[in-house]
Amino acid sequence: MIERLQVSHLRNLNQLTLQTAACNVIIGANGSGKTSLLEAIFLLSRGKSFRHHQPKRYIQHHQPATTVHAILSDDRTIAIQKQTDAATILRLNQTTVYNQSILTEQLPTLLIDPSTMDMLEQGSASRRQLLDWLVFHMKQGFHPQWVSYQRLLKQRNSLLKQTNSLNKSQLAELRAWDKGLANHAALIHHYREQVFEAWQPYFAKSSVQLLPTYAEQLSLSYNPGYDASRPLDEQLYERLNQDLQLGYTRIGSHRADVHVHWRSSSDSEGPITSTDTGVKLPALKEQAANILSRGEKKLLITALRLSQLPLLLESDIGNPMLSNAAPDAKATPVVLLDDITAELDDRAIDILLSTLAKLPCQVFITSLTEDVLPLINKYWSISTVFHMKQGEIFV
Engineered SS bond to 171: which of 166, 244, 317, 319, CB 3.0-4.6 Å? Predict the structure, then answer.
């Protein structure tokens, strides 16, 4: 849990310091710096912004860098400095470290904000990241495999972009990379599949709370991005000519996806029997995004994210949370809720807050007005309310 946070030169946050509690509410007008504060916490945890990937877009004008520093429980400290040229300095307990994953382990951060409410219609990247966030924190061996896979994939795609045909030496090099990709992909799929199976009942429970009318018709599926029953290198070799023409690798762990399906009531019970012929027809499965209204999609996405926290905190599969971290480290997940009243109705907000209040997590909530305070006070006997104006914060 964050106990003290310092932010320097991030957007309109010039020099900001605040003492935080288990529940923190930031109230202010648009442009006051509320979302920038959440962005700073996310940057510290993930090493990137959820708004722009280029540091020069969020570093204050005429400033060489932005710095975010936090004192966590047990007096642990973590800090990140991002420079305009994207150079990064990371520190854990005043010691320089060289992998962002080390800070991520110390500060698991889950974001629920308006920009994530379109993930069902977007490409697979955001849904894949949703699963990988869980896998990272629950499976110790996942991250090294993912890093190695990404490194080989980058080399392979670089070669594919250079030419439409390969000489013997290039082909031998590519086949060696493909073998490495296949080995990493098999382990990545193994970790993802285990966590995905553990996640499903938690999602089912969350969907009953937020979408009770459709809960029985909703289900998750995981696509590994390739035919996991066969070695990836064999499939890459079969598709080599097409990959050379396109200049990138079309299948693999980097194309994995999580889908949410919807079935009618009759479909959920099995195949449909035609009233005309008496023949059993195959069950109809449709993407939930094509069926639900925009408001229902928001509830569905909230259910997806909300269901991850109990699993992370309660699951006994594989390694416990923080299996990657020091034995004495005690990380508390941090949940960032940006302007939730703009995307969710009162019932959904009530369910979301009541669920979070029961979990050992720290919450940062932004709102345009104080209208959300009575609901927050219903579940947190003690919360800290901050008011923001032009990048400055007042208690």
Answer: 166
CATH of the domain at 332: 3.40.50.300
66 CB neighbour count, 10 Å cutoff: 24
d(C-alpha 122, C-alpha 127), whole Å: 9
Q: How far apart are CA 196 and CA 393, in angstroms?
A: 40
Q: Is the pLDDT of residue 318 over 50?
A: no
* SS3 assignment, position 224: coil
pLDDT in tens, 96-109: 999 999 999 999 99
Classify residue 382 by burial, with Cβ atoms within 10 Å: 0-12, 13-18, 19+: exposed
The answer to whether the CB of 66 falls within 8 A of the CB of 59 is yes
* Three-class SS state of 123: coil
pLDDT digit string (tens) for 162-213? 988 899 999 999 999 999 999 999 999 999 999 999 999 999 999 999 999 8
Q: Minimal CA–CA distance to 104: which of 83, 133, 76, 127? A: 133
In a domain, 391, yes or no: yes
Question: And the tokens for 340?
Answer: 């939730």
Residues 328 and 315 in one domain: no
Number of separate domains in the chain = 2
Residue 231 and residue 163 share a domain: yes
Instruction: Count the Cβ atoms, other than its own, within 10 Å of residue 395.
Output: 8
CATH number at residue 130: 1.20.1050.90
Tokens of 99: 């992998």
| Structure tokens, 237 | 């070799």
82 and 172 together in one domain: no
Residues spanned by the domain of 63: 1-108+323-395
- Report the candidate in 61, 25, 58 with the shortest Cα–Cα distance to residue 42: 58
The rounded distance, in Å, linking the Cα atoms of 345 and 257 is 28
pTM (2 d.p.): 0.86
